[in-house]
């Protein structure tokens, strides 16, 4: 694919511009510090790109402020009594070693991770992240089934994956939605909000007034759940672009 990259400077703001063979403009603001990137069609003139970014400056500043204000978890070491969250509830990690396949159990306020003796931090992390993905995969189908008849849409497929900049995304063309693995750590109501949000994009691809009206109709308390997600700490990452 042919691409052209350059940096657009607006006052103290540097915007990374990537022009490639696409049809629409995509604007992203990346954590943790609010780096701005625009993907645009090759045919889009620099002056047109500048006008587009200027028109979005208020939104960019708002997103940057939210990202910089959001709490981030300390790096996970996967040691005893470390805090981990499952569906919004805090658990204390307990490591048990055994010559057996890895296993995870929730016991009262403890998340018990059973691993083979000498398992590395990376191995413990991989086991726990796979467990979160499985939890999310099991929770999503019932929500899709619940909301499809209410909304009059059909989700052809859903995916669960690690996402650094979004809680979810939607492909209108394929009728599929993608969900951030981190949602397994948040309250179930927040997961339901994201599922409904992405399913609403099957009716309205953009975040325009029609989209807002649909969300108000389907889930009147959606702003509360959105604010809850923005308030809760998000995982520590070594962010790269």
Report the end-to-end length measured between terminal Cα atoms. Answer: 19 Å
Give the topology string: H per helix, E per strand.
EEEEHHEEEEHEEEHHH
SSE class:
alpha/beta
Strands in their spatial order, largest beta sheet: 1-2-4-3
Helix content class: 25-40%
Spans of at least 5 consecutive residues whose pLDDT stays below 50 are 236-241
Major pleated sheet: 4 strands, mixed
Sheet-strand content, in percent, reads: 25-35%
Figure out the total of helices: 6
Q: C-alpha Rg, in Å?
A: 20 Å
Shape: globular
Whole-number mean pLDDT: 89
Number of strands: 11
Please, could you describe this protein's structure?
The chain has 241 residues and is α/β, with parallel strands linked by helices. Helix content is 36%, strand content 27%. The protein contains six helices and eleven strands. The strands form three sheets. A four-stranded mixed sheet has the order 1-2-4-3. A four-stranded mixed sheet has the order 5-6-8-7, covered by helices on one side. A three-stranded mixed sheet has the order 9-11-10, covered by helices on one side. A hairpin with a 2-residue loop joins strand 1 and strand 2 (13-20). Helix 3 (121-151) crosses helix 4 and helix 4 (188-200) crosses helix 6 (222-231). The two termini are 19 Å apart. Residues 236-241 have low confidence and may be disordered.
């Amino acid at each position: 694919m042919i691409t052209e990259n350059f940096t657009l400077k607006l006052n103290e703001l540097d915007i990374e511009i990537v022009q490639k063979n696409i049809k629409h403009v995509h604007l992203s603001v990346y954590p943790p510090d609010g780096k701005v990137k625009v993907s645009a069609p090759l045919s889009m003139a620099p002056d047109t790109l500048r006008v587009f970014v200027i028109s979005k400056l208020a939104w960019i500043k708002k997103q940057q402020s939210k990202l910089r204000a959001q709490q981030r978890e300390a790096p996970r070491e996967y040691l005893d009594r470390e805090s981990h969250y499952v569906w919004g509830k805090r658990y204390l990690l307990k490591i048990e070693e055994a010559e057996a396949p890895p296993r995870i159990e929730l016991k009262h306020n403890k998340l018990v991770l059973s691993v083979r003796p000498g398992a590395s931090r990376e191995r413990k992390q991989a086991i726990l992240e796979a467990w979160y993905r499985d939890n999310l995969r099991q929770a999503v189908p019932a929500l899709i089934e619940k909301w499809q008849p209410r909304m009059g849409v059909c989700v052809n497929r859903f995916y669960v994956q690690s996402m650094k900049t979004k809680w979810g995304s939607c492909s209108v063309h394929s009728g599929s939605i993608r969900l951030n693995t981190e949602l397994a750590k948040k309250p179930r109501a927040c997961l339901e909000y994201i599922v409904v949000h992405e399913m609403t994009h099957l009716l309205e691809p953009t975040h325009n007034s029609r989209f807002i009206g649909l969300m108000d109709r389907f889930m009147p308390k959606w702003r509360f759940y959105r604010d809850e997600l923005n308030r809760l700490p998000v995982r520590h990452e070594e962010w790269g672009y």
